[in-house]
User: Fold this.
Amino acid sequence: MAGNTIGKIFRLTSFGESHGTAVGGVVDGCPSGLDFDVEFIQNEVNRRKTGSSPAASGRIEEDKVEILSGVFEGKTTGTPIAFLIKNKDAHSEDYENLKDVYRPSHADFTYEKKYGIRDYRGGGRASARETVVRIVGGAIAKLILFQKGIEILAFVAQIGTVKIENEIEKLSFNTVENSEVRCPDPEASEKMIKLIEDLKEEGDSTGGIVTCLINDCPAGIGEPVFDKLHADLGKAMLSINAVKGFEYGLGFESAAMKASVINDVFEYIDGEIVTKTNYSGGIQGGISNGSVIYFNVAFKPVPTISLEQNTVDKNGKPIKLKAEGRHDICVVPRAVPIVEAMAALVLVDHYLRE
Amino acid sequence: MAGNTIGKIFRLTSFGESHGTAVGGVVDGCPSGLDFDVEFIQNEVNRRKTGSSPAASGRIEEDKVEILSGVFEGKTTGTPIAFLIKNKDAHSEDYENLKDVYRPSHADFTYEKKYGIRDYRGGGRASARETVVRIVGGAIAKLILFQKGIEILAFVAQIGTVKIENEIEKLSFNTVENSEVRCPDPEASEKMIKLIEDLKEEGDSTGGIVTCLINDCPAGIGEPVFDKLHADLGKAMLSINAVKGFEYGLGFESAAMKASVINDVFEYIDGEIVTKTNYSGGIQGGISNGSVIYFNVAFKPVPTISLEQNTVDKNGKPIKLKAEGRHDICVVPRAVPIVEAMAALVLVDHYLRE
Amino acid sequence: MAGNTIGKIFRLTSFGESHGTAVGGVVDGCPSGLDFDVEFIQNEVNRRKTGSSPAASGRIEEDKVEILSGVFEGKTTGTPIAFLIKNKDAHSEDYENLKDVYRPSHADFTYEKKYGIRDYRGGGRASARETVVRIVGGAIAKLILFQKGIEILAFVAQIGTVKIENEIEKLSFNTVENSEVRCPDPEASEKMIKLIEDLKEEGDSTGGIVTCLINDCPAGIGEPVFDKLHADLGKAMLSINAVKGFEYGLGFESAAMKASVINDVFEYIDGEIVTKTNYSGGIQGGISNGSVIYFNVAFKPVPTISLEQNTVDKNGKPIKLKAEGRHDICVVPRAVPIVEAMAALVLVDHYLRE
Amino acid sequence: MAGNTIGKIFRLTSFGESHGTAVGGVVDGCPSGLDFDVEFIQNEVNRRKTGSSPAASGRIEEDKVEILSGVFEGKTTGTPIAFLIKNKDAHSEDYENLKDVYRPSHADFTYEKKYGIRDYRGGGRASARETVVRIVGGAIAKLILFQKGIEILAFVAQIGTVKIENEIEKLSFNTVENSEVRCPDPEASEKMIKLIEDLKEEGDSTGGIVTCLINDCPAGIGEPVFDKLHADLGKAMLSINAVKGFEYGLGFESAAMKASVINDVFEYIDGEIVTKTNYSGGIQGGISNGSVIYFNVAFKPVPTISLEQNTVDKNGKPIKLKAEGRHDICVVPRAVPIVEAMAALVLVDHYLRE
Assistant:
């Protein structure tokens, strides 16, 4: 059973290869009567573009979203919403020389082991180009969440060795999109940009961490046992290209702590039962408790670099590999809207499961 | 849509409350003709028992697995395998006083928000007692994996502030079960036991980290896009009670590293294409590459402690709470077979999806 | 992927063999707070018993339903409801001689082809004993439907060559359970009983047709395209042992008719839009329209008969076969509660999908 | 949970409205390395066209299938195969007058009840135009089945009151496509054409029955209990627009018969165990037995007719309705490839579940 669909009630099925005709998807299970804000969806897609990243070349891909079904007179009808984004004429011939080569830490080798065949052009199905489909699905999910007053906000917390040092409470999140690296801390932001410039010079790449906040999620969302809300969030994040880790609340840090320190005790404030602290990250037993949900997502460095690397081709012949032309030094700023989109997909699905 | 089933081909449906008649499950999709080793399954269940944990009271629960269907003359028939473990007469009256209380960092509050009703006895459905069901399902999965030569091995890498300091290559994993805390490093093991004893004295609890290795998994297992092998492993781990984080390969560490350092370059050795290093953790693009799969799972401290804590009841009335009697100081050693079981469930499901 | 689960939101997973320890099931997705009427459920199970059938031996099996989880203080908690019915000590040795024999028009041969192994005792998993699980699941579903005012009522419309001749409008459905063959038409009922007695004498068996009505189902239930309400009803009915056909509304008869005759024209009566006739059977485009839903289910004769039959064993050796002892002459009266149960399962699932 | 996906391993997700931009689908789970015969797929689509029906106008729609993904250098890659068929400029303004009208025995009323909104142009999502998506999915499924030597063949057995009178064994099925009404019996075929011409004159429409044969399906395909092979076939057929009934083997006829007459006894012929007769229709206990699988599908008359009909609009105002221009007198000949396509989808899914 192939894995190109996510969600149980609000379901996104994704299709498309990097250098095929188009990438796209089908959203099944979107409620009817929703105002379908095409402009918002297109803007979300634009946030992911190459041109939006700092050290990027400025090349602007069009990435125009075409809606094929499920919307009538500006509203959703409850039927499947299909959409596609055409792939531009993408110099596939540039990839001829990679046809038989297994690039280090890419999926070339494993796809070939699994399928016996692969569309080698630009990474084919394994390309991060597929994430644009998630952005569209997530944008539709966000339209529903907005109606419920739920807000999802992600930002860059770390790039390479540079982390936000200031306390998170002191940061102003409405500045995230102003930062070239989508980091709300101006000092860290500056250092990150410097780091990326240095790495560009070196021909290397690095990873980073995206933090995501979900505000105003009501209590009671999520399922016990296997489909815990944070388990589905974790799976969704880990399904993003280059992600190596997920933690929510105090995460890995909590392993070293004592319950007496990090238990979130309940209080009764203004007629409402709330937790005094939120070390848990807004989820207890897999179900939201009404506090802010927050989690971190760790990205490894993109494996494509300009430095020469050793590898082999499918016959085992040693090959020297060196990426020509443009490639991302650090995908993490561009990953911010993808993290948000995946969070929105999971949340709306759990919301509608209620 | 409730979340009590895991897997797509090999499916485990779990049921039962801590103080109800029984906990149990149904495995649907197990291949026919498998030698059904009841003793092995019971042994796996025994590994999870209270008595197996170091600072535990030595009380031995029986936890006898009863098989109700799907097995005939010692072999699986391809039909659903139902099983149950009866709950012992479990002093439910001890919980009367917790009926209206929301224990800090437990699921009492969120269950009530979601369902409007809850079986408050011993945590009900949210109790870690449910994990015994996973052990049984995972043990059946292991029987299949053994046949394929795949081995799953987990151990404790950290308890509270004590970590394994020795290099992992120098550890002997067949000693894991000899350690009272399931830590293969004798020095760390000793310190962990000491730490637990101190915490017991204090009346507090702490968390920890379990590392899991999957050896001899062939290349080609896993699905691209949403059902990546590590995404399903992550979800399965995050669904275990008290888990706060998951990382595979270099995990969070990779965020700070350079691709030139951690790319796994391919080599041709003895007629086979292999990676020189395994920073990726045995998975590329969501599909196994034939190397060892490894990952870490972070557990928070169990929230039930003997120290007095503040909380409120359902009417908002302040309550002083103090756990009486036995409770775990650190669940992490007992979580080792649970981590293995969940890994086995995910792996066998992906294996059969091929 | 094995097929022992039905439903998407309200899901019943069934397990158990005819002569194993128990048959049973797990209902996942039942809403919380439902009054769990155990007596009603047991009564539904009793309706299916051998003793309830006319020409049956009067042997009363106990078939006591045991609830293992999901119910607390008389109400559902929203967690999985597991239940089982123990199999009585069932003279399994009687089946030793059938171990290698393929009974005509039974599933012995196909199970062996599929699984390479089978529990041959009493038909194993293929036995109609499994339907008691459906009754329990359906009874829980009925409890929900009752709350919504939806009523499901099935009856025997044909046994062998005897059909109800009177107009359906003239029948009184509250007499169904009074008829030994669950036929609301007293004349037909009498003839059916006579027919069964004759067949018993002959040592033969026959089939029949069950008609089912769903009253007061609101408009708007069902999904377009693949999961049309009648498509799911059809699948559910066809999954019952011995069922060979399903039709709704005018069914097969409509093939020969003209649209001008059987189109259901709309009228405006007392402030409501209704159809003048109901040839469609209460469903348009896969979605209920508020009229009575009705359908027919055709059963073949049970293949086990006292007459001698030729067959072969697994080695191809010719065998003379002759059923000893009790067996049903016609299962159709006992199938009435099963048809109702399956209808309830489908309906409640679609209701909750809304 | 919306119902626009069919299949568990080989999954078709369908999208599109009659007068939207396009209809199309995504096939997920198609094995890699399959020769992707685009011409065959297009031919299957052409079989469904208006122009292929007897009494039709001869207008040829283009219905060109565009493949967007999942195919590389003429072979499937194992990734999702997305496709679309653009809707021609379809005089949507013709439907303005139907905007508020509920056409008798159409889905206008029920869609509005369910969704509160509907794309009224040409039936929107409820239009039989959606079935072209099934043809494409089914054609891909057929490519797989061909490799396994499995053949699916459907034909018209009845139109209105005209049935095939000759014995089925005497018919030559390779003539099906030569008949304007896809009936392999030349005499019946002629009478059917005459009947359709008469109905055209009258301005009325009629229904019919399609019979489908599946040849050379190996034994062992299908799942016990809920996902019986014939149950999934039944659901798939009942999901086709205008279908009112499904039966397999002797179907409804078997209700009146005796087991002694219709039991399929086993024989040992040429070293193989086979059934002497095939009244069961090639399936026992939900699993194929190696004999020919056959079933009947009943279609009601299309409700759109040129005769004037009464109905009401959404405000309850009486309306006189009369279809202008072209419409099908009998869809049954055009439904033949749709029945085949749905059978192929079900069969390949069950085949891959093995």
